[in-house]
Structures are given as C-alpha cells and as structure tokens.
Design a protein that fits this description.
This protein is mainly alpha-helical and 234 residues long. The protein has two domains: 17-170, Helix Hairpins (Orthogonal Bundle); 172-234, no CATH class. It has helices at 2-83, 87-169, 173-185, 208-216; strands at 191-195, 198-199, 221-222, 229-232. The protein binds zinc ion. Zinc ion (ZN) is lined by residues 199, 201-202, 204, 223, 225-226, 228.
C-alpha cells in the first residue's frame, strides 16, 4: 500500500508540474496578445490624430487664403478712400473698411484657436509615433523569444506526459480514476498528509480510529471531509 501511495504522490508531483507548464504556456500567449493589443491601440489613435491633422492643415490653408484675400481687399479700399472726394461715397467706403476689418479679426481669432488646438496634438502625435515603434519592435522581439519559450515548454510537457503515462499504468485503474477526480476538484492536491490527527488537505481533525488505521498503511484511506487520499508520514 505504501508503494501505491508513493506512486500516487509521484503522479501528483508530475501532474502539478504539468499544470504549471500549461499555465505558463497560456500566460505566454497572453503576453503576445497584450503586445498586439497595445500596438493596435496606438496605431488606431495615430490614424485618428493623423486624419485630424490633415483636416487642420486644410482648414489652415483655407483661412490663410481668406486672410490674404481680405487684406488685399482692405488695401484696395484704403487706396480708394484717399482718392474719393464725394462725401457719401467716402462714408460707404468707410463702412466697407470697418466690415472688412471685423471680418479680418474674426478670421485671425479662428486661426489662433486652430493653432492652439494643434500644439497638443502635434506633441501627442510625436509621442505616439515613438510609442508605436517601440511597441512594434517589442512585439517582434517578444514573438521571437516567446516562440522559443513555447517550444521549450512544449518539449517539457511532452516529456512529463510520457513519464506520467508510464507511472499511471502502474496504479490500479479505479484508484487512478479516483485520484484524477480528486486532483481536478481539489486544486491539484489529491494526496494529503495525515499529521497530528488532522488531514493536511482540509485541516480537519480525523476520527481517531481512522488516524490509527492510516498509520498502519494497510489500505488506502480517504479523508471523510475532503475525500483526499491520506497517508501518514512518521
Ligand atoms: Zn481532508
């Protein structure tokens, strides 16, 4: 019986290692996904800001044109102000000049607002370009490293699996089945030590008679509370 328990414990060690290896594999896959998501996030923002930047440039060109046209008109009106002798015509010209000046101020204010909005965007754009290029090179590097890591882990897993199969063949099938069920239900601890009258799996006190029996190692005993396979370590 002691031999049987030892095999189960060996099996448990192997099973736990395999579980850890599998967890590492999925963590690694998660890391690549994370890097990919990060890259995508940056490139989306970059796309958006680039489009905004293009709109801004177009708007600025339009404003610059309008400002230049307004200035030219204003110059012409001023020349005419100096030439006109008719009072009524002069008054009309003065009105036109005022209106043009107002329009000019409005355009200038618009230009200022555009320029002010452009500054933080330009900063963020430069920042994003750097972030994206870093994140992409990290992704390439990560994928390379991870590919090697994944290969290594898969190799280890395969070796453990072979060893486990060999070991499992030596355990009697109903016990193996029971062990596997407890292992999956009890977070990877199917075999627990009975110590000082207590099951170390669930920390509950065992009936004294059962604890005595466990110490004899004549047959396999289970914890009445957590159903784990118990063994005594003297
Ligand atoms: Zn227990």
């Amino acid at each position: 019986m002691l031999e049987e328990i030892r095999r189960l414990m060996e099996l448990q060690t192997l099973d736990r290692t395999m579980r850890e290896l599998e967890e590492s594999l999925s963590t690694i896959a998660g890391r690549v996904n994370q890097l990919q998501e990060e890259s995508q996030k940056y490139s989306k923002e970059l796309e958006l800001l680039t489009a905004q930047e293009q709109e801004f440039s177009a708007a600025r060109r339009k404003l610059e044109r309008e400002l230049a046209e307004g200035e030219a008109r204003l110059r012409n009106k001023r020349i005419r102000q100096n030439m006109v002798r008719n009072e009524k015509e002069l008054q009309a010209l003065n009105h036109e000049v005022d209106a043009l000046k107002e329009e000019h101020q409005r355009l200038e204010a618009e230009m200022l607002a555009l320029t002010e909005a452009a500054a933080p965007r330009a900063t963020r754009l430069a920042e994003l370009q750097e972030l994206l290029s870093n994140s992409q090179s990290e992704l390439v590097k990560g994928e390379k490293e991870i590919a090697a890591e994944v290969e290594e882990l898969k190799g280890q897993l395969a070796r453990h699996r072979r060893e486990r199969e060999k070991l499992a063949r030596e355990v009697n099938p109903p016990l193996l089945q029971r062990y596997e069920m407890i292992f999956s239900r009890r977070q990877g601890v199917a075999v627990a030590v009975a110590k000082a009258g207590t099951c170390q799996g669930c920390m509950r006190l065992l009936p004294p008679q059962l604890f005595n029996e466990i110490q004899k190692h004549l047959q396999i005993h289970f914890c009445p509370n957590c159903q784990r396979i118990l063994y005594f370590e003297g």
